[in-house]
Amino acid sequence: MAFGLTPKHTEEIYLTDLSPEQFLALAIETANQLKWQINYVSETGIIAYTNKGLFSWNADIKILMQYGNTIFITSESAGNEMIDWGKNKKTVNQFLDTFEIAKLSFTPEELTLKHIELEAELPPPEQDYLQLPPQTFKEQIKDFFSMFVPTKEYFITPILVNLNLLVFILMLISGVDIIAPTGEALLSWGANFRPYTLNDQPWRLITNCFLHIGIIHLVMNIFALLYIGALLEPILGKVRFFAAYLLTGLIASITSMCWHELSISAGASGAIFGMYGVFLALLTTSLIEKNTRKALLSSIAFFVVYNLIYGLKGQIDNAAHIGGLFSGILIGYAFLPSIIRFEETGVKSITIGFVSLVVISSCTVIYTMLPNNGITNQEIMNGAINNQTQSNPERSIFFIESDKDRSEYQSIMKDFASIESMALDIYPLDTTVAGKEQALGQIKNRGIYYWNRSLEVLAPLNQLKLPPAIIKQNKLLNEYCLLYIELYNLMYVALEKHSKAYDKQIDELHQKINVKLEQLKAGLPK
């Protein structure tokens, strides 16, 4: 099983009964039998493509002869997967097995004649692509960092990549966790979240496209953006490429917001899927050369299908991916006339302007129509769950990363709100001599009982993985319950003794409870 940014597998064999010329002729025959697409042939080897179809796994094959009798056969994944699950090794072995069978069908003389027929089409040694010297380590490092430097034909992609990197670095400097940023941190940096975005913060639809939920998320998206940018930006040009990125990112964010009511969304993947969608659209036209088109179409389609299926496992915003992808396909077709008529700058400007107008207008209409369920920013941040503030258990759950913990937290808060209501429902109290026993029963058997029950309901929260803001809120809720228990016990004693000596203490407890309620409303202990 090969693992890496581009998984591959290499086998080394030695010629014993064939000359290099005969081996080359037989290798071409073997590739043809396997129905591989041969893209390059020279005196020292061949480059081929497995060409198994649009939705199948494919590989790039390099067969290189060195030192006269040493052959290196390499299969490298053509898709964007990180692990090949042994497929490259299987492809190399398939070639070797087919090669041995094909050897039985030809004599050495026949192979020599086939090589003579090839000679006229082979490039001279000084132009042999396969004979270029391998890069030094310094050249490899320089080549790697060149991907982040804008050039004439590759200008917007490195700028977008660098912006994503810069934002992430600034987040780290501010104290955001490098692996798993909290919901609060993401929101403070501009993540997309329906209650915030619809509450006069539409800029989040764009800013979230430059945020990432941890280093792994960032690396995967940068790799995908570099790959598609290197292929697509030279075709689209700077302005179309930048417009497509922002417009598909905007649609991806709107789609995510339509689908998720209380989920935080961040990442460049919606816009990246949009760029892959644009390229898919162009690959279905004659704009790109046929043989190149087939290989790229397979690679891009594999990336899209693989990542959409992977996104079904949860914790991944597939709604944004789908919104970006399909909007990218439509924008790709819309841009096609201006790409074909590249010399007419007026066509390009009109096309970009028209597409931008349609996308922004459509997103504006959807934005204004989406319901916000009456939740304001202040209400979300309050997070206090009690009758007297008429709060909603939904308000705080978006801060919790785990679906299981979020669901359990929501259930506990609903139970707490119900029990709290019963604990408060002891009034009015009949404090006359005739009603004294009933009032004492209400305080003890209803009020004090249900406040103690509230503490029991809140206890399992200590076992959940909760963000700091909610942990502070839960501490306040426990203190809130304890104050009411103390208040009700004092009221019970005062009523039982029919004494006003406890009035001052009772008033002080009421004041403490009001302070605690204010703290809950503010969402922070004081």
Automatic annotation (TrEMBL):
Compartments reported by the entry: Membrane
Bilayer topology term: Multi-pass membrane protein
Predominant cellular place of this UniProt entry's protein: membrane
Membrane-spanning intervals of the chain: 154-180, 205-230, 242-262, 268-288, 295-312, 318-340, 352-370
Gene3D superfamilies attached to this UniProt entry: Rhomboid-like
BP GO annotations: proteolysis
GO function term, MF aspect, one: serine-type endopeptidase activity
UniProt GO cellular component terms: membrane
Segments forming domain Peptidase S54 rhomboid: 200-336
Domain of life of the source: Bacteria
UniProt entry keywords in alphabetical sequence: Hydrolase, Membrane, Protease, Transmembrane, Transmembrane helix
Family: Belongs to the peptidase S54 family.
Protein name: Rhomboid family intramembrane serine protease
